[in-house]
Design the sequence.
């Protein structure tokens, strides 16, 4: 075993027999565990610091940077863990390769021992063969036993040679395997050295990171100390600010008191002015006493001069106060300039100086408050100066008035003394205000000094940061130098490897057969590696497909959720459709009931028609009672007029109901159109809102980039130093964008839901506002009445056609009779030669007529019917719209009536043929009266048609009436001639 280990060490190139590959791993493990413990401690400290900084808004930027540092540290620890795992895997592979090498060496040694034993047996066999050959040459004859032994020996020789060849082949294979194993060992050595180098680099990086972490911890401690100090300073400043606010509040109270006092003084002055006016009026009365008190006035004039001198001194003092105020303004301007400079310096500082900025802003706000107080004091001073001017003017007025009212100088003296006391009080207050201003200025100077000290601290912190950056730069230089040294060593190592490869090439030339086998093995290895790479590529593709599959599953889940929502909406819509269908079924039932009632009324109408036919037959038979019928007709016209009015009212109600039905149908159609276009409009709206949200996000991102420009150099450094962290940051940004898009989509969907809810509520309100079932029942009743009336109209139209046919038949009969009368008249004219006799006969016949004929309507009359039967224009307009509905029905009835008319004409012709000639007189009278009867019947029909039909039936009746009136005039003359002939 010792020999095997020595050979293995030689083949592997390990000179140290005490080499232990797990020792470095154990050291690395120990260091890794220590790092884990340190990371846990750092994590705990990080959480504590975050808890302490959670309530403080001023340290928000510091917390953000602190979190970034902690994330970078976590990333580095994660990378160390990954490298540790890779190192463990490589160590395991290394140990496995060493074990396999030991096994191959053992097998090779066993093969060498077997080869040596075989060689010894071969030498023995060769010696035996040589001895046998010598014996043969000596000529000694061989026995059968010897021949057998010889044959056996030959066979054994052949077997041994075969075994030798097999063993040689095995040796060649083993040598090739040994060479492959040596190459694998070399590769593992190279990988091991590379990993050791990487481990060494990682250790160095770890030490550097440890140093950085320690430095950062120190910085953290220092910053925490500074934070505590700043907090204490902020607490003290806040207390000072509160005290100053109390002072300001007190000053404000004092100012309010002063304002109240000023108002009271103004009121006093106004009262004094009023008193002065009263005194001026009294002074007019006291002019007579003025001469006696001129001496007293001179003394008072001297006193006034002294008062003027005093007032001049006071004006000088006020001027001094104005100068002091100007000086204060100049100091304020200088302070403003200094503040501007400080603000410009603050704008150039980094994130750490921003904390100081907040404090300075507080100080600036306090300064502005003080400035406002100064301005308030200024205003008060100006008010005092104005009041002083007013007082001076009043004083001058008083001087002018003293000449006129010397007796009233005593109260003025008292007022002067009061004013002097008030001026003294104002001066005291101004003095107090000046003291307050001085205190404020001193506090302001203190705050400026504190701001300067804080700025110096910031500058010192920046210098420390610069020093640390220089140290980092030096460390980077050292790293570059170490890298150059490493590269030099690697070049030397490659040169040694090239020398070793040359020696290996010389060995390969000596062992050409072994080299060919090696090549084959290499080809196989390359193929295996290729297959492995293909397998790895396929595994990666599988992983990608699995990730894509997961994404697709997520998308499918989202789509399924959307489909569920759409299904719910569809179910709601279907429920609404079902309700509408139920309403339609109800309406259909109502329609069926109306049709049943219509059929009943049709039966009733048929009964009425039969009765009417009977009445018509009775009317035709009772031509003698026409006069009585006229009276009855006149009495019935009044009732017809009342019924017409009622009918007009009903028609108006029907029109209103029709308009309501049309409006409801229009609204229904519009609602259907709106519901059909809702989905498209919602989709368009979603698209437009998505576009708007996308553009808004773009605008916001651009605005944020403009307001907060990206520190490009820091990103570049991060990209060069830690690309994984850079990739993670990019991934975070992409995820943030996706999150923004998702939130926008959620908002859009919420808006869509709200819109749908609003639409649903609007539809509900519309349905609630729609007409109830009572109105629908009324509409149905009116529709039934309408249908009944329309049926009556249609039947009346058929009757009209019948009457028209009868009228045509009567006309035809009258024409035939006219021809006969003409022939008879011509014959009698030739018979009667005496013209006078003929005239006497005609006059006597006319005089002896028992009763006058009824007055017929004239041809030129525009209205064949009386005004009572004219239909109203509203009915004409309504029935004009219903013409198209009745045309089809009228055409069918017209065909039936034509057939009936043909049958009736045949019957009439037969009756005429059967009639005797002796009844010509009575027939002539009947023919004269028949048109009037027809006219009466037509008038009755027209009354009914005016009630039920409209313009169409009325126009037809008018045309027929005109035709009949034209024919009746002709018939009158013919009838008169016939009657004359008869008589």
Sequence:
């Amino acid at each position: 075993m010792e020999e095997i280990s020595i050979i293995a060490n030689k083949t592997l190139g390990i000179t140290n027999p005490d080499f232990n590959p797990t020792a470095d791993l154990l050291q690395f493990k120990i260091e890794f565990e220590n790092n884990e413990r340190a990371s846990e401690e750092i994590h705990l400290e990080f959480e504590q610091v975050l808890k302490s900084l959670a309530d403080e808004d001023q340290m928000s930027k510091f917390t953000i940077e602190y979190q970034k540092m902690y994330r970078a540290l976590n990333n580095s620890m994660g990378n160390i863990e990954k490298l540790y795992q890779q190192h463990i895997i490589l160590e395991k592979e290394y140990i496995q390769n060493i074990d396999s090498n030991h096994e191959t060496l053992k097998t090779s040694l066993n093969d060498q021992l077997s080869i040596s034993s075989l060689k010894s047996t071969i030498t023995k066999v060769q010696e035996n063969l040589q001895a046998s050959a010598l014996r043969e040459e000596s000529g000694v004859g061989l026995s059968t036993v010897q021949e057998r032994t010889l044959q056996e020996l030959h066979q054994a020789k052949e077997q041994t040679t075969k075994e030798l060849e097999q063993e040689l082949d095995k040796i060649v294979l083993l040598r090739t395997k040994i060479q492959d194993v040596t190459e694998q060992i070399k590769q593992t050595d190279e990988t091991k050295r590379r990993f050791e180098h990487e481990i060494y680099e990682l250790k160095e990086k770890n030490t550097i990171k440890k140093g950085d972490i320690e430095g950062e911890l120190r910085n953290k401690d220092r910053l925490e100390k500074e934070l505590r100090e700043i907090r204490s300073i902020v607490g003290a400043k806040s207390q000072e600010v509160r005290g100053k606010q109390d002072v300001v509040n007190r000053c404000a109270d004092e100012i309010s008191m002063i304002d109240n006092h000023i108002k009271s003084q103004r009121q006093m002055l106004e009262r004094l002015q009023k008193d002065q006016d009263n005194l001026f009026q009294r002074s007019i009365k006291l002019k007579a006493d003025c001469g006696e008190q001129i001496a007293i006035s001179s003394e008072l004039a001297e006193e006034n001069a002294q008062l003027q001198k005093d007032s001049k001194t006071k004006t000088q003092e006020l001027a001094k106060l104005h100068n002091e105020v100007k000086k204060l303004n100049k100091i304020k301007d200088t302070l403003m300039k200094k503040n501007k400079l400080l603000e410009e310096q603050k704008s150039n500082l980094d994130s750490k100086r921003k904390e100081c900025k907040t404090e300075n802003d507080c100080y600036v706000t306090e300064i502005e408050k003080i400035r406002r107080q100064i301005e308030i004091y200024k205003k008060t001073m100006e008010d005092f100066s104005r009041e002083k001017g007013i007082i001076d003017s009043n004083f001058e007025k008083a001087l002018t008035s003293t000449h006129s009212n010397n007796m009233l100088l005593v109260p003025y003296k008292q007022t002067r003394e009061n004013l002097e006391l008030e001026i003294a009080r104002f001066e005291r207050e101004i003095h107090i205000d000046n003291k307050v201003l001085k205190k404020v200025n001193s506090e302001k100077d203190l705050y400026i000094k504190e701001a300067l000290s804080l700025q110096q601290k910031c500058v010192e912190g920046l210098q420390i940061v610069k020093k640390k950056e220089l140290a980092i730069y030096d460390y980077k230089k050292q790293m570059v130098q170490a890298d150059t040294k490493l590269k030099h060593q690697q070049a030397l190592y490659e040169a040694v490897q090239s020398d070793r490869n040359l020696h290996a090439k010389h060995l390969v030339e000596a062992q050409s057969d072994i080299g060919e086998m090696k090549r084959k093995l290499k080809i196989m290895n390359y193929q295996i590696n290729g297959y492995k790479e293909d397998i790895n590529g396929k595994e990666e593709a599988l992983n990608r497909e699995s990730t894509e599959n997961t994404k697709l599953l997520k998308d499918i889940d989202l789509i399924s959720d959307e489909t569920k929502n759409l299904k719910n909406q569809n179910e709601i819509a279907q429920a609404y459709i079902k309700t509408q269908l139920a309403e339609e079924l109800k309406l259909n039932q109502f329609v069926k009931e109306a049709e049943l009632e219509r059929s009943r009324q049709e039966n009733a109408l048929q009964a009425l028609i039969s009765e009417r036919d009977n009445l018509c037959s009775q009317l035709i038979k009772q031509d003698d009672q026409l006069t009585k019928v006229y009276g009855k007709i006149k009495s019935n016209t009044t009732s017809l007029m009342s019924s017409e009015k009622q009918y007009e009212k009903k028609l108006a109600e029907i029109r209103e109901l029709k308009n309501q039905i049309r409006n409801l149908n229009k609204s229904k159609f519009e609602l259907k159109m709106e519901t059909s276009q809702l989905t498209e409009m919602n989709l368009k709206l979603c698209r437009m809102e998505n576009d708007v949200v996308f553009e808004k996000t773009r605008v916001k991102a651009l605005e944020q980039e403009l307001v907060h420009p990206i520190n490009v150099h820091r990103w570049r450094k991060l990209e060069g130093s830690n690309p994984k962290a850079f990739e993670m940051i990019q991934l975070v940004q992409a995820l943030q964008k996706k999150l923004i898009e998702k939130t926008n989509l959620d908002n859009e969907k919420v808006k869509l839901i709200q819109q749908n809810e609003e639409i649903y509520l609007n539809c509900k309100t519309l349905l609630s506002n729609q007409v109830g079932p009572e109105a629908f029942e009324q509409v149905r009743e009116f529709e039934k009445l309408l249908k009944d009336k329309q049926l009556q109209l249609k039947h009346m139209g058929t009757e009209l056609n019948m009457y028209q046919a009868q009228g045509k038949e009567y006309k035809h009969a009258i024409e035939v009779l006219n021809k006969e009368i003409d022939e008879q008249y011509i014959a009698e004219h030739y018979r009667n030669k005496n013209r006078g006799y003929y005239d006497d006969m005609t006059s006597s016949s006319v005089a002896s007529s028992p009763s006058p004929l009824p007055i017929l309507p004239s041809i030129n009359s525009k209205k064949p019917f009386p005004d009572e039967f004219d239909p109203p224009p509203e009915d004409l307009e309504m029935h004009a719209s219903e013409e198209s509905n009745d045309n089809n029905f009228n055409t069918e009835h017209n065909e039936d009536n034509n057939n009936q008319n043909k049958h009736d004409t045949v019957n009439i012709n037969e009756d005429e043929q059967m009639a005797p000639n002796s009844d010509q007189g009575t027939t002539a009278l009947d023919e004269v009266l028949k048109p009037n009867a027809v006219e009466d019947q037509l008038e009755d029909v027209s009354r009914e048609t005016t009630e039920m039909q409209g313009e169409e039936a009325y126009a037809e009746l008018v045309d027929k009436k005109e035709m009949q009136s034209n024919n009746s005039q002709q018939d009158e003359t013919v009838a008169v001639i016939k009657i004359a002939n008869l008589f």
In short: Confidence is low (pLDDT under 50) at residues 1-21, 841-897, 899-935, 945-949. The CA atoms of residues 720 and 726 lie 9 Å apart. Residues 792-982 form one domain. The first helix runs from residue 2 to 12.
